[in-house]
Amino acid sequence: MSPETFDATPGRLDAVVARRLGLSRAEAQRAIAAGRVLVEGLPRPKSFRLAGGERIGAELAGMDEVPAEGPGVEVRYRDEHLIVVSKPAGLVTHPSASRRTGTLVNRLLGMGVPLSTLGGPLRPGIVHRLDAGTSGLMIVACDDQTHEGLVALLRRHEIDRRYLALVRGVVTHDRFAVDAPLGRAGARISVHVGAGKASETRFEVLERFEWATLLEAAPRTGRTHQIRVHLSAVGHPILGDPAYGGGGDDAKRLGLTRPFLHSHELAFDHPATGERIELEDPLPADLANALSELRSEA
Q1: Known catalytic residues?
Q2: What are 272-293's pLDDT values in tens digits?
Q3: Residues 53 and 122 reside in one and the same domain
């Protein structure tokens, strides 16, 4: 992409640049923050007010590139078609319009993992996601044919995904399911009866404590924040999840600084070889320590 120069119209710098160059506001802000946009030869903040007529220069070449970065992530399975990794908590899955670094995709590229192209330039290889605060097993496609096969398995509910969740309160039923449609209002997901997307999660009690319960969650669908919202909706939010009611003193008592939600088991038929893949991922130290603390109180 060649450098762009143009005369400004009145308004905020980020809004003017986005409108003139056909970018999203987030993309314009990222270019400004990177020093790639100059006003009369000088860098200005995104909120800089343009009177109109100023000469704007924008150099956007390479802005769409997703750089390879370290450190790597732990690998639980790998062949020429796909890789299953243990995503650490706090790591965003893939880049976005406003962010090109610090994601799982960057780390996979840094490890030299080939990634499928079907997800687009910002989501190479990504078949399904884990929230930034969720840890555990994730499947990533290394080629387009395998990507298509994995998506088909997900659509047919033929990838068995199991999560460990520690929730507030004592859950009465040993097994139960939540079948409640989910919809988005800004950044927040909630149950939208009659208007949201169909969502189902099955739960099984693994261990009960005086004021908390350890559950295994098996989502049938893959909606954003699905397990977290479904548990909040039935009055048992995940401990350490302030966005959906699981924060406060109980979470602090266990030293939780993120939701106690971990993708601990995956099972599926390999779309290229037909081999049955069954994997487990142990609890990371922060969640294992919280569970030990809770058991010590019993």
Answers
A1: 131
A2: 999 999 999 999 999 999 999 9
A3: no
Q: Which of 156, 180, 195 is the last residue of a domain?
A: 156
The two tokens of residue 242 are 């302030």
Domain hosting residue 135, numbered range: 65-156
Q: Give me the mean pLDDT over the 3-22 stretch.
A: 92
Type of residue found at 168: R
Residue 39 sits in the same domain as residue 83: no
Same domain? 203 vs 277: yes
Is the same domain home to 121 and 161?
Answer: no
Question: In terms of domains, do 162 and 285 share one?
Answer: yes
> The CATH number of the domain where 206 resides is what?
3.30.2350.10
Q: How far apart are CA 297 and CA 225, in angstroms?
A: 30
Helix axes 13-21, 25-33, angle to 10 degrees: 120
Instruction: Answer yes or no: do 245 and 196 share one domain.
Output: yes
Q: How does strand 55-58 pair with strand 49-50? A: unpaired
CATH code assigned at 42: 3.10.290.10
Q: Encode pLDDT of 161-170 as tens digits.
A: 999 999 999 9
pLDDT, position 122: 86
How far, CA to CA in Å, does 135 sit from each of 9, 27, 154, 248? 46, 28, 20, 21
Identify the pLDDT of residue 2.
57
Measure the CA–CA gap between 126 and 99, rounded to whole angstroms.
Answer: 16
Total of domains in the chain? 3
